[in-house]
Each structure stands twice: as C-alpha cells, then as structure tokens.
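hiii so my PI (J.) wants the whole complex modelled not just the main chain, which honestly fair. so below is everything: two entries, each one labled with what it is. i double checked the lines twice but i was tired so who knows lol
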Amino acid sequence: MSEKRQLQKAQTKEKITAAALKMYSENGFSTPTLAIANEAQVSHGSIFVHFPTVEDLLISSLDVFSKEIEKELLLLSDSDNDIATLLEMHIDVLIRHEDFYKRLIKETVYLPEETKNTFIAIQSTVSIHFLQALEKKMSEGKIKNVPFHMIFNTWLGLVHYYLLNSDLFTPKGSVLKQYKNSLIECFLTLIEK
Amino acid sequence: MKNCIACGMPMRKTSEFAMCDESKDYCVYCARPDGTMQSFEEKKENLTNFIIKTQGLSGEVAENAALSMMRKLPAWEDHFT
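here's the output for the full assembly
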C-alpha cells in the first residue's frame, strides 16, 4: 500500500474513533454505527472496513480515550505527593472528560470484558499516585487505619456517586466543578486523623 | 522521555529508570534487585497483587486486568502471539 493511501486510512480510522467517542458520550455505548458514520462523514460500510465488528470499534475508541486520560493522569505525580493537590488534579482531569467518563462508569457493567480491563487500567494509573501520596502520611500516623483499597474506593465511590446522580445535584453544568471543594474537604476529613 | 517497556510508565526522572541508568528501557519498579528486568511471570504476579492491594478486586479479575495491560506492552509481545 502506498504511503499516501496508508495515511488516508489512518486518518479515516481516527475520524471514526473521534466520532464514536463523541456519540458514545452523548448517547451511550449502544449508539448505532450508522449514527457514528454520519457524525464522521464516512459511508456506513467504511466503518466495517476499519473495524470488523461493533465490539472492535468500541474497544479501539476506548483505547484512544484511555491513552488520552492516562497521559493526563500520569501528571498527577506533579502533585509532590500532597493529597489535597492530588485530589484536585484528579478531579480536574475528570472535568475535562466528564461526559464520557460519566457514560463509562454508568455503562461499564454492560460492556465487554476487555473494556472493563481498560477501566481497571485507568484506575490503576490513579492509584499509583494515591498510594505514593498516602503511604508517606500513613507511615507518619496521619491517616486512619483503613486498608488502602478501601480509602481509594471511598474516594472513587464519592466522585462516582456525584457523577452518576449529577441531575440531582447539578441539573445543568458540571457537577464536579460545583462540588470539587466539598468532595475534597469531605474526603480529607474522613481519612485524616 | 521513555516509556517503560514492561509496565508503560513514563520515565521522566533518572531515579525512575532501573538502576538510575537512563540507557535502560525499563523502570525501577520492573527491575529485580540486581537490576535485570523481571520475568513475565514475576511481572504478572506483581501487577496482579498491586491491583488487589490498591483497588481490592478479586484475584481472578485482577489477573485478567494485569494480563490485558501487559498485552499492550512491547516487553511481553512474544507471550501473546
């Protein structure tokens, strides 16, 4: 295949995954491929040239999303292991991807196993920085004696609850923007001695 | 900046490279005490235990997730072909 043709193929593939991410974010992961093709301005058949099955398209799109969000999450190491800064940076990353992330936590239970592993990998990146920040404070006796995974899951539980019920807390706009400070303060009060 | 071939972590500081050696392609967390890179089985076990410790997942789910992460990394390509 010529270089030009290869480049065109890669560009179309990129266009399709970008459209899929937008449509999944707006309408959920069961969005018909025809709607994705329309959004990407490609023929319906073109989708299946690049992604033989709907599941392939879903997994590839999620891979693109996870690479993007993980790149940002890795910068949590710039928090210098300060827990409040880390929590703030984590919420800021989620705000930038709020609609898609909300969709992911809402529908992940219905998605193929491979996508669940992508979700676990995303949380794994966050947890590395949590662990580094908390271990120091734990060894200084400043954090309540609770297993690390319960502390981490409590934070995720809190954030995810507000995201999943955003219509109850913030009918319009970003629930994370509005509740960012309250969530951080509440979580720190819960875990600190 | 390089990414660790065994776990994908970006290595931005010298201290993040195995043995603080920037010519290495793997990170300090994927190195054995003698500086050599962990084996596939060692890495799988470490990653699984890390997921259990940090996210509290069941052993089976954590191992599947660990394998899924390793599948995407250049160091383990041969193990998945």
